[in-house]
């Protein structure tokens, strides 16, 4: 009887696939970028010279979709110009050609599916999980993702477990990936028109490094500390509404990889106003908790996860990792369109630490300077756009101490500019309907 049921189910499934439309898409991306780094990420000493660097990300993607199955395969090459020899005789290279995405998504029940394989994640405003467009390599995870959506409710549950190699017995995990185990649950509910609430909880199993004493060869057990990140994201408004609001709060507890007790938080708020279709204004702040005592066994500075670094806290990326003393970012943004193809943005940031930075035996302060970011983006056609930007950072003694360990360092005024071309050709997009009898 059970065999008969299985045959009936398999026949029905095959029949559904047979008549379903199938979409096959082949697309690509060519994205070269040239940067002039004269104090990018940290001040440049006057004994040093600014750097001009060119890099490129290239992707080739193939996706397939039918009624019950969708798959995606993306091959990616990320390199800095010049790191690969001009001939094939070179024995080493720093370029990275990898599988960026390779997953299959299967429908199991109405509204529910499971996606297994290497995949990019993006939730809410991208602070915890995102595949940043700016990054030359992007971020993806090897995991299983269970998805469910009905009416105005969505839920995703993800699970990942990593090993250095497929060995025969348990060994210490060399942290190629920041976590050894990860599980998370994300839920989103539309509460009213243009108003939605997301809740998320993340459990990271991080390899215990406190007991290894630098000797991992004899560390045969799976000893993990667990860091828990949980909180919510409330958003109101769309690009068509005059006002928008985003509120974020995440807290961290558990243990760090060194065994410290985690007690940290991130709070953020952003208010937007769109007075016209050609102008957007925004004001907001990001607040990362900080430590004033690193020897008390508790970590109060927030551990950033796998979100977008470049989109927050200034384009010069001085604080992609918040300082131990915490970070406050208070900013104003104006953006808009001059024409239908030309977009611009001006952003100003004022940075402060949450705890005093002691940059001399008798001197301390909280000022972390300020930053001005200017960006232009021109859409050339449906498959190409060019983007450029200029940023300048105004430092303080606290910044020089945190970045260079020398509050009196003789530096240039930090500046950074870039030009980036993005070409996204669609090689193939065909819809096939198999209705043969």
Low-confidence sequence ranges: 1-19
CATH topology: Porin
Count of discrete alpha- or pi-helical segments spanning 4 or more residues: 2
Radius of gyration from the alpha-carbon trace, in angstroms: 25 Å
What would you call the structural class?
mainly beta
Largest sheet: 18 strands, antiparallel, barrel
Shape: globular
H-E string: HEEEEEEEEEEEEEEEEEEEHEE
Instruction: Give the number of DSSP strands.
Output: 21
Please indicate the percent range of residues in DSSP E strands (runs of 2 or more).
over 45%
Q: How far do the termini sit from each other? A: 28 Å
Number of domains: 1
Integer average pLDDT = 89
Task: Lay out the secondary structure.
Blueprint: H1 2-19, E1 21-38, E2 51-65, E3 69-80, E4 96-109, E5 112-119, E6 141-150, E7 153-161, E8 181-192, E9 195-207, E10 224-236, E11 243-254, E12 261-262, E13 264-276, E14 279-288, E15 298-299, E16 327-337, E17 342-360, E18 363-381, E19 384-394, H2 397-404, E20 415-423, E21 426-433
Parallel strand pairs: 12-15
Antiparallel strand pairs: 1-2, 1-20, 1-21, 2-3, 3-4, 4-5, 5-6, 6-7, 7-8, 8-9, 9-10, 10-11, 11-13, 13-14, 14-16, 16-17, 17-18, 18-19, 19-20
